[in-house]
Amino acid sequence: MSGLTIAIVGAGIGGLTAALSFARQGHSVTLIERRTGFSEVGAGLQLSPNASRILARLGLSPALRRVATMPDRVVVRGLSSGKRIGEIALGAYMQQRYGGPYWVIHRADLQTILLDAVRSEPSIRIITGRKVEEVRDGLDRAELIWTSSNGSREGMTADVVIGADGVWSKVRRAIGDKALPTFHGYVAWRSTFDRKIAPPELAGNETGLWLGTKGHVVHYPIFSGHLINVVAIVKTDEPVEGWAAPGRAEDLLAYYSAATPALRELLKKPQEWLRWSLFRHPIKRLSQGRIALMGDAAHPVLPFLAQGAALAIEDAATLSALLARNPQNVVQALSDYQEHRFERVTRIQAEGRRNGRIYHSGSLVALGRDKIMQMIGPESMSNRYDWIYGFRTPE
């Protein structure tokens, strides 16, 4: 049988990884992207071994090593006290235990590497500036309809349609899930700044995690260690619009007025803050007929476990492996994909919510949390997530 025709809606991290995976298996891929270009305003993201191993198999390790950073550890501190609570082993320990690095990287750098690889594949066509309006399943083919910037309607048919179009997915409606995501009550503030101006005690090759009842802050070096990425979580009743709403530094500093001096000094460094709202949406289905979902379109996860990008990469690898196993029966392959992924992503969604509660717990619970963290030590803190980091793609 000749290769399949596959349409992917959304050219983010998951969509690009999927396109590359399918093309390497001999399929013909069309990527449909709503944006007219690929400039990326996002900040850093974390690529744990369950994702980095997949990217390595796609031949991307040399490019990633040039721009990614591999922190030695996570240092956990009390947000107000500055007290060192515990550590989580990363670096060489993760590499040895799981067979892949724990990288942190600027989203734009990862997207550029993936996009360069995708553009080198002659069997991938990229269409930008198109807004998908309708997806319909069919007995022999699925159909997409989109509008271009001038309002004209176009479309195509494909053996498989994949929705990688984010938390507000249009494709998700095509498999019967019309519920809207729910605001989780938190807004994330993100920024980057030159590592040279970071407080010296916070400028090492490590991830900083500061826990408090009102929120938490994460920071780590990216861009080959030249920049520091910082994300601060703020509890609020109202979401902000979009993924890059401007935020005023004085508002964030007022919110974290009780933070320890070193952390407040770090939060003063960025010149610009951008904000996005955290939404949750319980997974219902990942596929129906010839249509499948991946990444945030299928299962948005809160960032309290740093698994959003990793899960999208896992989805891409799993789906491509199962289609390679059974290309003659696409519907069955997509059904197998749902069966393989449903329990895992449901568990990770739940673990992310649980982590948020632990991070922001009150004084009594926090006291117990801190004691446990100190008792079990850095390596055991990592080992708790063997079930995440040890993921293997089905053969």
From TrEMBL:
Domain FAD-binding: 5-348
Recorded GO MF terms: FAD binding; monooxygenase activity
Cofactors, names only: FAD
InterPro entries: FAD-bd (IPR002938), FAD-dep_Monooxygenase_BioMet (IPR050493), FAD/NAD-bd_sf (IPR036188)
Keywords, ordered alphabetically: FAD, Flavoprotein, Monooxygenase, Oxidoreductase
Matches recorded under Pfam families: FAD_binding_3 (PF01494)
SUPFAM superfamilies (alphabetical): FAD-linked reductases, C-terminal domain, FAD/NAD(P)-binding domain
This protein's name: FAD-binding monooxygenase
